[in-house]
């Protein structure tokens, strides 16, 4: 297999392990006949035809199909909000196991076209709110949550209207606000987010099954935390708006809501009727990919599941890491050159403030690998892009192209591949199968890519300045540098892989 084929296999393996149905079936079981219980990762909840279900997110359709199969007659009614067109897309892809059966008790509402809140998503949120408001202490509300849930559960606090809230969110995103910051603001302006859904469902027992698409799996940030006590106050929201110079350009309705919001977050004891359980995450996906890579003969390390930061800085980190891997591979892992790369890496990691990353320890492990050894480095997380142009692409394609450009500049004296008779590939892809408004999940790059592009008369820096990575990668034969998987039905952020091996093995 080629290095590209290995990278694709690892990506598909990672995504496969967090596919909604098998993931949910591993976590949830129905047990007992006389006094049946719903077992969720070892926790038991009595059920007796008293279960209601709601859900919102990109992976929720497949989760709901599995949940209905498990619950059987104990499920009374359900409502899920899913992305526009997802049912037809899954049918066309032959992924019928992610679709509800005919005569399902679960109503499906499609909305949030292009992952943006719209009137259809608003209708679905209103229906979910109405269902939750009618529950009693004898009922159990099963809540299915995955990435994309924020856009699919819009319920602005009056007098804010959806268009005003959406405009503010777009302004934040275009200036590079991280998902944590976006969701902190969304929560402050929403009826259902920030624990609102759980409060409305009281006194029913609420059990949330969560597929995390946020670094660190914070319950109050994933889908803006509709069933979790918020760790943020109104002051946090105001600080974010100040940071991006938006505090003095807010709609009057937003100012009204912020001015009358409580200054303290809701107390955790108000959520004693709620159980939030993470059933899938980037960590789970990377662990499975690591096993697969080792089976292919690679010495495999996981860098982090929390890679974050502006895409240019993250590209620099990966470029330096690839250079260090290459030096070690060719037997030059010790000396002034490799020491300089290590110092640069440590400085970059400190600037990016990646949670839980002990890069010094990671680099120490790399030192002991020895030359000519096939190596695979895996990582996950989510970068941010500050939009400057009008091109087409996504954060993963832009990351791959920026890594390629930096590698080209680092090895500018080379005409083909870096010295040492080795081949290197870098992959970055979104686990939901869609990177930005394109059909690609991400892209591949190698140290040779930019040189090939220059020979074809392509100005890489011009494509990057216009945020036009998809158009760049599309110039090559058969889209060979694009990662195209189709819709996956799941979402646990992004996955990156670096593979290096001897050319004699290829």
Primary descriptors:
506 residues; alpha/beta; Rossmann fold; glycerate kinase, domain 1; 2 domains; 18 helices; 15 strands
- By secondary-structure content and strand pairing, the structural class works out as alpha/beta
Q: What kind of sheet is the major sheet? A: 6 strands, parallel
CATH fold-level label of the largest domain: glycerate kinase, domain 1
Count structural domains: 2
Helicity level, as a percent range? Answer: 25-40%
- Strands ordered across the widest β-sheet: 6-5-4-7-8-9
Name the beta content range. 15-25%
From the alpha-carbon coordinates, what is the Rg to the nearest angstrom? 24 Å
Shape: globular
CATH class of the largest domain: Alpha Beta
> In CATH, what is the homologous superfamily of the largest domain?
MOFRL domain
Q: Extract low-pLDDT stretches.
A: none
Query: What's the overall average pLDDT, rounded?
Result: 92
CATH architectural designation of the largest domain: 3-Layer(aba) Sandwich
Query: Tally of extended strands?
Result: 15
**How many DSSP helices?**
18
Secondary-structure blueprint of this entry?
Elements: H1 3-16, H2 20-27, E1 28-31, E2 37-40, E3 43-46, E4 51-56, H3 60-71, E5 75-83, H4 86-92, E6 106-111, H5 119-133, E7 140-145, H6 162-174, H7 179-188, H8 196-201, E8 205-211, H9 234-243, H10 252-260, E9 274-280, H11 282-295, E10 299-310, H12 311-329, H13 336-352, H14 359-367, E11 375-384, H15 395-410, E12 422-430, E13 442-445, H16 449-455, H17 460-465, H18 469-474, E14 482-483, E15 494-502
Parallel strand pairs: 4-5, 4-7, 5-6, 7-8, 8-9, 10-11
Antiparallel strand pairs: 1-2, 2-3, 11-15, 12-13, 12-15, 13-14
Helix pairs in contact: 1-11, 2-3, 6-7, 7-9, 12-13, 12-15
